[in-house]
From TrEMBL:
Gene3D superfamilies: Isochorismatase-like (3.40.50.850). The keyword Hydrolase applies. Residues 4-166 form the Isochorismatase-like domain. Belongs to the isochorismatase family. This is Cysteine hydrolase. It comes from Candidatus Allocopromorpha excrementigallinarum. SUPFAM superfamilies: Isochorismatase-like hydrolases (SSF52499). It holds the Pfam family Isochorismatase. Keywords: Hydrolase. One of its GO terms (molecular function) is hydrolase activity. InterPro entries: Isochorismatase-like_dom, Isochorismatase-like_hydrls, Isochorismatase-like_sf.
């Protein structure tokens, strides 16, 4: 079984307070990738950046003083065109999700995973954080990222994150490559 981890495809990162045109542009590719995994019977897991009303008092809030993904708000929701039905959604209070890495370790013990692919937002913050956590948790499992289904805070930081992940032996899929 292969696993697709869809990272933080939330309204605030697409058309909300931290939205970018690059994030909006990947939505159709993300939807297509999710459908491909489901048609093969593979697992799709979502993460959701989750903050609370005290966000500005947190360490992250002091460094990025833009309230976003406040639990229960419109911006916290997964983009409405993306179908999450039947999939686990993991709420995470920070960039990376130890819960996601632990779940994948457990699944791998039950049945060795063929690979884990990450897509979503933002390449240079939450995608890279989760990819490295997963790679460290499952060093013998193929971990990959599809750059056409990711967007960073800025195009330059997106590319920097892809280079950094590649250096950590996370496979960066080439344009048109299928897995």
């Amino acid at each position: 079984m292969r696993v697709l981890a869809v990272i933080d495809m939330q309204k605030d990162f697409i058309d909300g307070v931290l939205g970018t045109k690059e994030a909006a542009a990947i939505v159709p590719s993300v939807m297509k990738k999710i459908e491909e995994y489901r048609q093969r019977g593979d697992m799709v897991i979502f993460t959701r950046d989750t903050h609370h009303e005290d966000y500005l008092d947190t360490r992250e809030g002091r460094k990025l003083p833009v309230p976003h993904c406040i639990e229960g708000s419109e911006g916290w929701k997964i983009w409405p065109d993306i179908d999450t039905e039947g999939s686990l959604i993991i709420d995470k209070p920070s960039f990376g999700s130890p819960e996601l890495a632990a779940l994948l370790q457990k699944k791998n013990r039950q049945e060795p995973l063929e690979g884990i692919e990450l897509i979503g937002l933002c390449t240079d913050i939450c995608v890279i954080s989760n990819a490295i956590m997963i790679k460290n948790s499952l060093p013998e499992t193929e971990v990959s990222v599809d750059p056409l289904c990711c967007a960073g805070v800025m195009p330059e930081t997106h590319h920097n994150a892809l280079k950094a992940m590649s250096m950590c032996q996370i496979d960066i899929k080439s344009k048109g490559e299928e897995k």
